[in-house]
Amino acid sequence: MALIVQKFGGTSVATIERIKAVADIVIAARKQGHQVVVVLSAMAGETDRLIGLAGQVAKHPDSRELDVLLSTGEQVTIALLSMVLRDRQYPAVSYTGGQVHILTDNVHNKARIVDIEAVRVKKDLSERKIVVIAGFQGIDENGNITTLGRGGTDTTAVAMAVALNADECRIYTDVDGVYTADPRLVPEARRMDRIAYEEMLELASLGAKVLQIRSVEFANKYKVPLRVLSSFEEGPGTLITDEDEEMERALIAGIAHNRDEAKLTLLGVPDEPGIAGAILSPIAEAGIEVDMIVQNMGVDNTTDFTFTVHRNDYGKALTLLEKTARGLGAKKVLGDNRIVKISVVGVGMRSHAGIASRMFAALAGEGINIQMISTSEIKISVVVDEKYLELGIRTLHSAFGLEGDGDVTGNAAG
Ligand code: ASP
Ligand code: MG
After folding, report:
1. Residue 124 CA, distance from chain mean position
2. For the CA atoms of 171, 122, 115, 23, what is the dihedral angle to 10 degrees?
3. What is the layout of strands, in order, in the sheet containing 168-173?
4. pTM score of the predicted model
5. 215 lines ligand 1 (CB under 6 A)
6. Is the alpha carbon torsion for 134, 135, 137, 140 positive or negative?
7. Mean pLDDT, rounded, for 28-40
8. Which atom of ligand 1 is nearest to the CA of 42?
9. Ligand 2: distance of its center to the CA of 266 in Å?
10. Rounded-to-integer distance, Cα 360 and Cα 357, Å
């Protein structure tokens, strides 16, 4: 017997039919002898609908009241699922976040969980009840309802798993696991059986939108095994867990991409202290997030400075940069919002040399020009023209043998 937390997202509870299908999954786990805690999202589209309603009554809806409103979405699904389960003679009980003391800070609309008092849930479980909890919401120390930010139900589920010391936290969604690349772009992409927390964090922050990043950080910190799997079809999904030997042996776990990038370059700025700060301060003050930064080596006391921002911020950043350029006496400002970032990710990089050269050679083989490069311990990212997005990912996918069982040290070429 294990204690399992099962989380179902909005598409998994989008209709009454889907809620009944969720009940089947819950009952199946129960029949295997497990203790089951279920954490639910609102029906797909419901949170957006509620935000839309708020927007119709106020230009800037009060954040506390918005949380009172948004938390209702999840209250609907937990009640409905519990009714279905009870109708099938399973003793289910639903709770809002506040009822099970999911204590958060008081930052409305993006609160953080600070504590969960699991006593009530544990008692229910010991009485063989199925506990159904509303995701995405909590309560602050003054009893105000809070919400955790979009996608927050993942975090509720993981936090609940931590509080209950669960054996596994299963995140049911509309995909059957985490893939080596986006299967819509790479038909050969493969579902991974296992992936390290750190790899998942890199893949998630790079645009693989399978899980809320914060939930993975949480799972990593408390070492709760997380499993991503489909509520639409049976299968083992992908287990997200601590690094193991097999993961270290693989060169690359997967490839992520991000289409939302734009790059800006300042040519011929003085090569002296304070320049990078002078360029980026106005950008930061405007609340624009900077992703990659590259500064060239200086020649003749001047240098070139390039950085990337979210595509939505491109126009604003360009205007700011042109102003800075005049102040600094820079030669020229260049911008390009038709770029994408492609990244290879894998803990295997720590123990293998030559991954970067292999990556660059593969791209060169297809005539793909690399505009920028950045690296971290387990990731190499390149910026390329957006027209090379698909070709770039496919090329790397096959260069690293990801369509098979993954390339391992033994037959690595580079
Ligand atoms: N219902 C919330 C949202 O749509 C929370 C979640 O689904 O995780 O963001
Ligand atoms: Mg969701």
Report:
1. 32
2. 30
3. 92-95, 130-134, 35-40, 3-8, 168-173, 226-230, 238-241, 194-196
4. 0.85
5. no
6. positive
7. 97
8. 1
9. 39
10. 5
The Cα–Cα gap between 373 and 251 comes to 19
pLDDT tens-digit profile of 296-354? 888 888 999 999 999 999 999 999 999 999 999 899 999 999 999 999 999 999 888 89
Res 412: pLDDT: 34
Q: Which residue has the tokens 């294990």?
A: 2
Side-chain half-sphere exposure of 203, counting CA atoms within 13 A? 27
3 state DSSP class of 102:
strand
Tell whether ligand 1 has an atom less than 6 A from the beta carbon of residue 41.
Answer: yes
Q: What is the pLDDT confidence band of residue 246, given thresholds at 50, 70 and 90?
A: confident
- Residue of 66, 150, 155, 156 best suited for mutating to test ligand 1, as the one with most atoms within 8 Å of CB: 150
Which residues have a Cβ under 8 Å from the Cβ of 48 and sit 6 or more positions away?
A: none
- Quote the tokens at residue 350: 């720590």
Q: What is the β-pairing status of strands 372-376 and 379-385?
A: antiparallel
The two tokens of residue 125 are 């479980």
The span from the CA of 163 to the CA of 158, in Å, is 9
Among 101, 136, 141, 147, residue whose Cα is nearest residue 121: 101
CA distances from 120 to 124, 126, 140 (A): 6, 10, 18
- Amino acid of residue 209: K
Tokens describing residue 301: 């006391």
- Ion ligand 2: residues, CB within 5 A, are 9, 151
Q: How far apart are CA 406 and CA 27, in angstroms?
A: 36
